């Protein structure tokens, strides 16, 4: 008798959990993605055209996710702006956004795509995680309707957030983080009213998540480590290797060593903007890193990391 698809997914997920629990380590992956960018325009494209571009980028990310899973990875991080790029005004980015619910709703978009508003990007990311039995972290855009009773509501009646999402190996949405420290050119997005400290538990440690520029501030970066005691941090970024930032590898490796946690850093790849430098960084130094300022190719990195570095005798 052939098991049904839901039972098969449950069995694979249970096996992955048992394997992770049996070990003090896990295999992490990050993918540095050469993003396929839209044409620069101030006018919004149609929703179909927006989704077509995002699907091109997700085709590439799906290939990386499959390869990472085949090599035994338990979790993979993809870059900031990795699904639609960054050439947008506030109006032009709107067709690329989806309404992302609070993870407390206990939602698997892959199996229940019509439960909320249309969310084809969340559905596809959820299926990537579910079909490959791996945690998937990605950066997308969230939209939230507001009204005139809210004094902070923008004139167009909506909030737009630079947002990270995480789906577990069953495809369930387990984390949503709105970037708090926007870089000066991110005028297409709104600032959240408060900094969010987002964590989620896995069989291989407690994870936190934030985005790019956030790493330079106490909230949420230091709070996650010092107050919420995370073991590892997921870090989608679009980091330019120019002053005053120095190289991504140097800064992010130093941060992981100084904070005493793992940092899974996935950078976008665009050599014309000096964007490169991804890595799997630990309190002892880089477990793996990639820096390429000469080619236009993406790159997948994997490494075995300590699940709970705080328990190490050298912490």
Automatic annotation (TrEMBL):
<dbReference type="Pfam" id="PF00795">
    <property type="entry name" value="CN_hydrolase"/>
</dbReference>
<dbReference type="InterPro" id="IPR012101">
    <property type="entry name" value="Biotinidase-like_euk"/>
</dbReference>
<keyword id="KW-0378">Hydrolase</keyword>
<comment type="similarity">
    <text>Belongs to the carbon-nitrogen hydrolase superfamily. BTD/VNN family.</text>
</comment>
<feature type="domain" description="CN hydrolase">
    <location>
        <begin position="31"/>
        <end position="307"/>
    </location>
</feature>
<dbReference type="InterPro" id="IPR036526">
    <property type="entry name" value="C-N_Hydrolase_sf"/>
</dbReference>
<dbReference type="InterPro" id="IPR003010">
    <property type="entry name" value="C-N_Hydrolase"/>
</dbReference>
<keyword id="KW-0732">Signal</keyword>
<dbReference type="GO" id="GO:0015939">
    <property type="term" value="P:pantothenate metabolic process"/>
</dbReference>
<dbReference type="GO" id="GO:0017159">
    <property type="term" value="F:pantetheine hydrolase activity"/>
</dbReference>
<feature type="signal peptide">
    <location>
        <begin position="1"/>
        <end position="22"/>
    </location>
</feature>
<dbReference type="InterPro" id="IPR040154">
    <property type="entry name" value="Biotinidase/VNN"/>
</dbReference>
<keyword id="KW-0325">Glycoprotein</keyword>
<protein>
    <submittedName>
        <fullName>Vascular non-inflammatory molecule 3</fullName>
    </submittedName>
</protein>
């Amino acid at each position: 008798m052939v098991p049904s698809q839901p039972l098969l997914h449950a069995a694979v997920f249970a096996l992955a959990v048992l394997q992770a629990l049996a070990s003090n380590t896990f295999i992490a992956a990050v993918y540095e993605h050469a993003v396929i960018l839209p044409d620069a325009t101030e006018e919004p494209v149609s929703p179909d055209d927006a989704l077509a571009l995002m699907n091109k980028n997700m085709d590439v990310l799906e290939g990386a996710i499959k390869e990472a899973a085949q090599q035994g990875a338990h979790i993979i991080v993809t870059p900031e702006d990795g699904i639609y790029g960054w050439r947008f005004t506030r109006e032009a980015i709107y067709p690329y956004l989806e309404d992302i619910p609070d993870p407390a709703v206990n939602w698997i978009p892959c199996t229940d795509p019509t439960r909320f508003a249309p969310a084809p990007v969340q559905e596809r990311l959820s299926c990537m995680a579910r079909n490959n039995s791996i945690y998937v972290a990605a950066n997308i855009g969230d939209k939230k309707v507001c009204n005139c009773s809210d004094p902070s509501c923008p004139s167009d009646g909506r909030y737009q957030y630079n947002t990270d999402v995480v789906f577990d190996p069953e495809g369930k949405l387990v984390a949503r983080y709105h970037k708090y420290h926007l870089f000066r050119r991110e005028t297409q997005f709104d600032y959240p009213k408060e900094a969010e400290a987002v964590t989620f538990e896995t069989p291989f440690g407690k994870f936190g998540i934030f985005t790019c520029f956030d790493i330079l501030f106490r909230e949420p970066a230091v709070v996650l480590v010092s107050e919420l005691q995370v073991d590892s941090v997921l870090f989608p970024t679009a980091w330019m290797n120019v002053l005053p930032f120095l190289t991504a590898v140097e800064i992010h490796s130093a941060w992981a060593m100084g904070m005493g946690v793992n940092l899974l850093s996935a950078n976008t790849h665009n050599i014309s903007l000096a964007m490169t430098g991804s890595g799997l960084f630990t309190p002892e130094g880089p477990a793996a890193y990639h820096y390429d300022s000469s080619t236009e190719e993406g790159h997948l990195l994997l490494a075995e990391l300590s699940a709970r570095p705080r328990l190490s005798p050298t912490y």
